[in-house]
Amino acid sequence: MSVNFIALIYLLFIRFTSIVLPQRIKKLNGKCEIRGLKHIAPCTRLHSGCHSFYGNVSCANCRIPFPEAKVVLWEEDYVSADDFIIEASIVNGNFQLNGCFSDGTEVENYVQLYLLFNNVCQKGETKRSGVLKEFSAVQYTICDNEYDVKVTFV
Question: Residues 116-132: pLDDT tens digits?
């Protein structure tokens, strides 16, 4: 085999595994699966439009959430960087997020959403939850040694 043929196969393999495969995983499973093959994280798929989310946030270590604690709603984006939607303060352990959004294209009529919890139980710490439920209170518990947030429907 020639060197050019081997180089072509190598380039096709890299292109297939880094771009096409994650897109296939996304479409086959119907879930939000991101960051290539190394990190798969859940998110909630909703139709584009106006949505409202509210919940309670607590620390598993019995600490009260810091006054500067925030929850941020993001849209998962496979083509470019994730899109910031809205941010809210966590007051007395509670938050509410209201916003209208779309994926910015006419092809897809849905968005894939997740929450980031910043500075809740430890300063400088960020935790993620891909579980959102509209019109229902959700209990989010921040654990010290886990990246994802534990979720309970109230």
Answer: 999 999 999 999 999 99
Question: Domain range for residue 17?
Answer: 1-30
Cα first-last separation, the chain: 63
Residues 6+ apart with CB under 8 A from 151: 129, 131, 138, 139, 140, 141
Give the number of other Cβ atoms within 10 Å of residue 32's Cβ.
Answer: 20
> Does residue 7 share a domain with residue 68?
no
Q: Are residues 78 and 142 in the same domain?
A: yes
Burial letters 54-88, b for 16+ CB under 10 A, else e? bbbbbbeeeeebbeebbbbbbbbeeeeebeebeeb
Q: Which two tokens stand for residue 32?
A: 């939000």
